Amino acid sequence: MIEAHLRLQRRDFRLDVALALPSRGVTALFGPSGCGKTTVLRALAGLERASGRIALDDEVWQDDATGCFVPTHRRPLGYVIQEAALFPHLDVRGNLDYGRSRAVSESSRVPLDAIIELLGIGHLQARRAATLSGGERQRVAIARALATGARLLLMDEPLAALDAARKAEILPYLERLHRELAMPVVYVTHSMDEVARLADHLVLMREGRVVAAGALADLMARTDLPLSRLDDAGVVIVAEVAEHDELHGMTRIEFNGTSMWVGPSTSLRGEQVRARVLARDVSVTRQRPTETSILNVLPVRLDSIERDQSTALLRLHASAAVGSGGWTLLARITTRSLDALELRPGDELHAQIKGVALM
Amino acid sequence: MSTDAWTAIRLTAALATLTTLLLLIVGTPVAWWLARTHSRLKPVWSAVVAMPIVLPPSVLGFYLLLLMGPHGPVGQFTQWLGIGRLPFTFGGLVVASVLYSMPFVVQPLQQAFEAIPERLLEAASTLRASPWDRFVSVALPLARPGFVTASVLGFAHTVGEFGVVLMVGGNIPGQTRVLSVAIYDHVEAGEFSEAHRLSAGMVVFALVVLVTLYVVNRPPRDDAERAR
After folding, report:
1. pLDDT for the residue B221
2. What is the pLDDT of residue B5?
């Protein structure tokens, strides 16, 4: 458990957050620029001095009540920033060794070979930082941070400086990291796509405060948060691959008793995949549609309606099989349709899902 | 060349070398502090360090004479230490040269330190490097061109000083009679051929030093993106 209570007052900015982050998985700090998410990360690292208390499990890093402040170089953490910050006077191997030779203790040293293999940078070792591509540089920076034997990995918009192609190149490595390392990661981003692909937990920030915090799936399915007003609002599910339709190039996934057809996946049967169902891709009908081109139609119950000027966000509960628990999805429809269909909470409907994005 | 000339050359080289070494030792922490501090006194200290550029050497020499003289605080201190008085000795010349050439060493170092992106030092601290470790393993190697410039300028500027030497050191062969003073002496005495030999030597020396400096500090091609 990472606990932090941080306060900071600057001329036109006030930070006041209390965080309790799980010690497993990826926690995304998400919010618009200027909301203080980078400041929180820097304070966790000790690069910025906020007042309050920071503790990783039973290890206190800062406690103003006792005057304790552990300097950055004594905190067992790894830190990766947007610009990678590789040392230009060292080659890749030298950069990796810089981190490893200063590792917390002999026993906490992660085998460097495993890290190099994990991030696919073996062939780069003799190269200088200046000759690497943006994506390569970032992979080296992550490897260097891991080589210190860190117990917590802090990442500040590691993909923000990269173009779409480079992002696509590096995201699989981050997903691999996520799967193979038990280390907790705090990941600052303003990209919903990165959140959906990588995060397990989400902390929503706004103007120096925490708006909401919790499991990613729970927060994404809420209609009362700023998230739901984003154009790409929608839920994230972690489903299991059930079958492949080679002829049509599609894959069937199962999730909490419901099943959906999605685009082709390279994952094997039984493997877990992340998928996103965007609110704008979901529509509802009162009668079960027949002879429709939409492949995924789920019986749902309308939980709640959040309406604004021209659109309304519906929170729908899907449960195909009795006793399967079901799951929540969102649908964005026009208020005109909402009034025409006279929708009320509790109505039994059918959700037509136009697209499910595998990630 | 006469043995007198060789004595002057040897003395000049010894003075410049010792001054440069002392300045690197003293100037590095000063430059590091000036490059990193957010203190409100920074402009004041920057000005103090830069003063010898603006002041006539005779002003500096005059006050050094007063300070190091028998009634000056420095003079009393050196007498108390048993070193004796510094004016008109090699030791006095070294002290004067260190002060006089200070900006030529501190400023290139300061610029080199300021050019190091803060994020590289922060990265080093997240990689568990202590402040001293960061300085040695990141700041020093990255400021290498600054050290080359500082050493060359410090050395060359000490070789080229005249006014302060004359004020503080006088003209004692083998003690304080450096090249610039020797040349002045020859000219005064009408020994133009001697003066020519030494002066032409200085011109060649200056040219060689500066060309070397510009060649050494030319950024290598693959480091062109180093700041990224």
Report:
1. 56
2. 87
**C-alpha closest to that of A307 among A341, A348, A354, A277:** A341
CA pair distance B226, B113, nearest whole angstrom:
14
DSSP output for A202-261: EEEEETTEEEEEEEHHHHHT-SSSGGGGSTT-EEEEEEEEEEEETTTTEEEEEETTEEEE
Predicted pLDDT at B225: 45
Nearest-5° Cα angle at B131, B130 to B135? 115
Q: Does A101 touch chain B (CB under 8 A)?
A: no
Strand A201-206 and strand A26-30: the pairing is parallel
Give residue for tokens 């009034």.
A339
Interface contact flag, B120 A87, Cβ < 8 Å = yes
| Domain contains A223 | no
Chain A CB within 8 Å of residue B50 CB:
no
CB pair distance less than 8 Å for B126 and A45: yes
Same domain, A189 and A249: no
Domain shared by A61 and A112, yes or no? yes
Cβ partners under 8 Å of residue B163, min gap 6? B56, B57, B58, B60, B61
CATH code (residue A132): 3.40.50.300
> How deeply is B207 buried, as exposed, middle or buried, from its count of CB atoms within 10 A (0-12, 13-18, 19+)?
exposed
**With an 8 Å Cβ cutoff, are B123 and A87 in contact?**
yes
Which of B117, B125, B222 lies nearest to residue A73, judging by beta carbons? Answer: B125
- Residues from chain B that touch A104, judged by Cβ atoms under 8 A, are 128
Please indicate whether, in this complex, the C-beta atoms of B127 and A144 are within 8 angstroms of each other.
yes
* Domain end marker among A184, A216, A248: A216
- Name chain A contacts of B119, Cβ cutoff 8 Å: 81, 83, 85
Q: Which domain holds residue A92?
A: 2-216
The domain covering B3-218 belongs, at the CATH homologous superfamily level, to: MetI-like (1.10.3720.10)
How buried is A321 (Cβ within 10 angstroms: 0-12 exposed, 13-18 middle, 19+ buried)? exposed
Q: For B73, list phi and psi in degrees, rounded to 5.
A: -60, -40
Reference B19, options B158, B135, B197; nearest CA is B158
A80 and A186 share one domain: yes
- Which chain A residues have a beta carbon less than 8 Å from that of B224? 130
Give the helix, strand, coil percentages of chain B, each rounded to 5: 75, 0, 25
- Say yes or no to pLDDT of B228 above 50: no
In degrees, rounded to 5, the angle at the alpha carbon of residue A95 between the alpha carbons of residues A93 and A96 is: 65
Of A47, A81, A98, the CB nearest to B127: A98
- All residues of chain A having their beta carbon less than 8 Å from the beta carbon of residue B123 are 79, 81, 85, 87
Q: Indicate which of B120, B128, B142 best probes the interface with A, i.e. most A CBs within 10 Å of its own CB.
A: B128
Statement: residue B195 has pLDDT above 80: yes
- pLDDT value at residue A170: 87
Q: What is the pLDDT of residues B123-140, one digit of tens each?
A: 999 999 999 999 999 999
| Predicted structure pTM score | 0.85
